[in-house]
Design a protein that fits this description.
The complex is a heterodimer of chains A (198) and B (556).
Chain A: H1 2-21, H2 31-39, H3 55-68, H4 83-93, H5 95-116, H6 125-136, H7 143-161, H8 164-170, H9 185-194
Helix pairs in contact in A: 3-4, 4-5, 4-7, 5-7
Chain B: H1 6-17, E1 22-25, H2 33-36, E2 74-75, E3 84-85, E4 95-96, H3 120-124, H4 134-148, H5 173-184, E5 190-191, H6 225-234, E6 239-242, E7 245-252, E8 258-265, E9 270-275, E10 279-281, H7 285-293, E11 319-326, E12 346-347, H8 356-359, E13 365-370, H9 382-387, H10 393-402, E14 406-413, E15 422-430, E16 436-441, H11 446-465, E17 469-470, E18 516-518, H12 533-552
Helix pairs in contact in B: 1-6, 1-12, 4-12, 5-11
The chains are: A mainly alpha (198), B alpha+beta (556).
């Protein structure tokens, strides 16, 4: 059984590699672009069903996401870019990551409780930012939350810049296919003008 | 043939082309580029954004060079197939288990050795001379470059012999800046020699400049042995591939000739044998040494073709270190598509081959660099976040401004083979097939440490000439690379004229077992500052023609 299955998949493999590669003869320069389009689906964001975080935890991540990377005139926030779903998904596949988030978010709540007798999401923007400022400054009073903060901020930043919003924010123009590599002359001149070589 | 990387792929191509029947054994699966290569995928094509379906990126599962998007089946750690490192040594071993091996993922840098690289001992009394000279290999460099397709420009520099080149792509913005900075220091930055084509070649499409060569190339516009040599060889009808088969031991007869290979069919776990007239081992430098060392018999008590005791010895890797410069006037540079080919379009070849008295270290290095606007990905801003503790609008603005304003310099230098760097069979440990595994020993010497320090000084001067500032380096990283992590392991089954001090001859043929060849990086006598793949191909091509002519004259 196994052998015949292997033979079958090997035949299919031979057929596929033969059609993709052993083209021979004339080469159409636009077929590279064709291949490129075929394999770059640019999947659309789908509605997300929570997998690991509780409703409260997810809400806290939503708020933290927009505090870490907020919307501005150029682009939306990390929350808009799907950071909470990204984090929840990864928490759901690796238990140790999920527990890190569970404990870390509990620390945010207990810290807010002891300062203002509120959960993190119920605190005012100023109160929330105040706590984050202490974390950012590595203030000794928030030392127990610092490690989680570093991971959280890293993952929120990753989620934002790996999204269409973040990629647009940075102005990335690549991951495309062209028949020629061209450096725009005005950009080269711009760089040279400001360099020590002008 | 055992192994399907640059050495095995070249052997397959040349020998099937000359009418020989070849069976190729590969420890991993077949490659299906349409399914396996991810070069055009966006991070957001996946819910995990490239962090990996098991959050590998955040839990240390990928390691240097590798990501979710890299061509598949390449690992720092293979479950069930461990290796060990002796106390006091450091070594990391990147292994591929797939048709094409590491040629699917490498940066395609293709540099010829210089004439003097073949005679290192004659020049400075260190290491050992090769049993062949530049002029012996030059015709095979020509054939290799013409066949695989290499871009570059003729420059007439002794350390970087010119070859058969396709036209290179124009320099990127940071390439132009580095070329000017290098000129201030009296150094030359020239077009990188890279196995990526700009014109159609043997039915392969020219590069479409997506910049992701290490992910594999669906259009086969860069060289990989899988796409450029092995898949086309299937058309000949003379090639059979045994995929997912792991060689265990080479079996010999009473006349010290290879008669068969015993191997594990990984699909079933069954042990089988295959007979052969000639055997070529090209399983990667260390894996080839492991197979020979594991093939013991009364005639070869120290392992096959190892009566000299050199198998496993003289393991080297390139000397590596890097430094990143922050270039203030590149902040807020208007954006352009800087993908091009992977990495920079220029590099700085070694310049000091006549200056060793003042350099204070032997041999040399070349400089690779990188910059521009990379495809955003998870982890891209890790270093920025280490520097910038903040959050909110200021963080967002800062990351936007500094994106694309860094130039990274990396050195690739020559290590002198030494007695303390080698691999051997671990006396205890076996892999899940019961095959004894390798134990590594590795020490850099002061030659390498001084060279890495010189690299750091040169990078600093280049960054200053650029008008930039060197970025602080993580502790230890400013010194020298962890052995193995430049991925240029070479030298474990070295070639030579004297059977007492070498295992194979200049045609990669065993001194002791006349129907055995070792045609990968294991054969190297030294590890010049030239990325080795092109030389592996040229040596294998030469060995294949020799094998063919010997076979035709009844030599086996």
């Amino acid at each position: 059984m196994a052998a015949s299955k292997n033979n079958f998949s090997r035949r299919r493999w031979m057929h596929r590699v033969a059609t993709v590669f052993l083209v021979g003869g004339a080469v159409d320069p636009v077929s590279a672009q064709h291949v490129h389009r075929q394999v770059s689906p640019n999947s659309r964001a789908k509605p997300y069903d929570r997998r690991f975080l509780t409703v409260q935890e997810f809400a806290a991540i939503e708020r933290l996401s927009e505090l870490i990377i907020p919307a501005d005139a150029i682009s939306g926030s990390a929350r808009d870019a799907g950071a909470p779903a990204f984090i929840d998904l990864l928490c759901s596949v690796r238990r140790e990551l999920g527990l890190t988030y569970r404990e870390g978010l509990a620390w945010f709540d207990s810290e807010m409780q002891s300062r203002y007798s509120k959960r993190f999401v119920s605190a005012s923007a100023t109160e929330q930012e105040d706590l984050l400022l202490k974390l950012a400054a590595a203030d000794p009073s928030v030392a127990p939350g610092r490690r989680f903060w570093i991971l959280l901020r890293r993952m929120v930043v990753d989620a934002f810049y790996s999204s269409p919003l973040g990629i647009h924010d940075l102005g990335f123009q690549g991951n495309t296919s062209s028949t020629k590599f061209v450096v725009p002359q005005h950009i080269l001149e711009h760089a040279l003008r400001k360099s020590p070589f002008s | 043939m055992i192994g399907s990387g640059a050495g095995g792929g070249t052997m397959v191509q040349v020998l099937t082309g000359l009418g020989f029947k070849v069976t190729l054994m590969e420890a991993g699966p077949l490659l299906d580029p349409a399914r396996d290569f991810k070069e055009h995928e966006w991070p957001y094509d996946h819910p995990h954004r490239g962090a990996g379906p098991g959050a590998e990126h955040y839990l240390g599962g990928y390691g240097p060079y590798l990501s979710y998007f890299t061509a598949p089946h390449t690992y720092w750690d293979i479950p069930g197939e461990p290796y060990t490192v002796a106390a006091g040594s450091q070594f990391r071993w990147l292994r591929s288990r797939i048709l094409g091996g590491r040629t699917n993922i490498y940066a395609r840098i293709s540099l010829r050795f210089a004439d003097y690289d073949f005679e290192p001992y004659s020049r400075d009394g260190l290491g050992t001379d090769w049993p062949l000279r530049y002029q012996d290999l030059a015709p095979y460099y020509d054939k290799a470059e013409a066949f695989i397709g290499v871009t570059g420009s003729p420059e007439g520099i002794r350390s970087a012999p010119d070859g058969v080149f396709q036209a290179p792509p124009p320099p990127k913005v940071h390439d132009v800046l580095v070329r000017k900075a290098a000129a201030k220091l009296g150094l030359r930055a020239i077009a990188m020699r890279r196995a990526v084509i700009t014109k159609p070649l043997n039915g392969r499409l020219p590069c479409h400049y997506c910049g992701e060569c290490e992910r594999g190339c669906k259009t086969a516009s860069n060289y990989s042995s899988s796409q450029v040599q092995i898949l086309p060889a299937l058309k000949s009808g003379r090639l059979t591939i045994l995929d997912q088969c792991m060689a265990r031991e080479i079996l010999t007869d009473d006349e010290a000739r290879v008669r068969a290979v015993s191997y594990i069919d990984k699909r079933t776990g069954e042990e089988k044998q295959i007979r052969c007239r000639v055997l070529v081992v090209a399983a990667s430098a260390c894996e080839s040494a492991r197979l020979l060392l594991n093939s013991k018999s009364s005639r070869f008590p120290r392992g096959l073709s190892n009566n000299s005791g050199v198998v496993g010895k003289y393991l080297t890797d390139s000397v590596g270190t890097y430094l990143i410069g922050s270039i203030p006037y590149l902040r807020n540079l208007p954006r352009y598509n800087s993908d091009g080919m992977t990495g920079s379009h220029l590099y700085i070849p070694w310049w000091g081959w006549d200056d060793h008295e003042k350099l204070g270290f032997p041999r040399g290095y070349h400089i690779e660099f990188g910059g521009g606007f990379p495809m955003p990905s998870v982890g891209m801003f890790d270093a920025a976040l280490d520097r910038n503790g903040g959050f909110g609008s200021a963080l967002k603005r800062g990351l936007r401004e500094e994106y694309g304003s860094f130039i990274r310099f990396g050195g690739r230098g020559e290590m002198i083979p030494n007695e303390k760097s080698f691999c051997e069979i671990d006396p205890e440990k076996k892999d899940k097939w019961g095959i004894p595994v390798l134990r590594f020993h590795f020490q850099w010497s002061d030659h390498e440490r001084r060279q890495a320090q010189h690299m750091q000084e040169t990078f600093r001067r280049l960054i200053e000439a650029l008008g930039g500032t060197p970025m602080p380096m993580p502790t230890g990283m400013d010194r020298i690379s962890v052995p193995g992590t430049v991925l240029h392991e070479l030298g474990t089954v070295r070639m030579g004229k004297d059977p007492r001090t070498s295992a194979i001859d200049s045609f990669c043929r065993s001194h002791e077992v006349r129907n055995l060849f070792v045609a990968d990086g294991a054969s190297f006598v030294s590890n010049p500052e030239k990325n080795p793949t092109l030389t592996i191909i040229a040596l294998a091509w030469r060995a294949a023609e020799h094998l063919a002519s010997e076979a035709q004259s009844g030599g086996f």
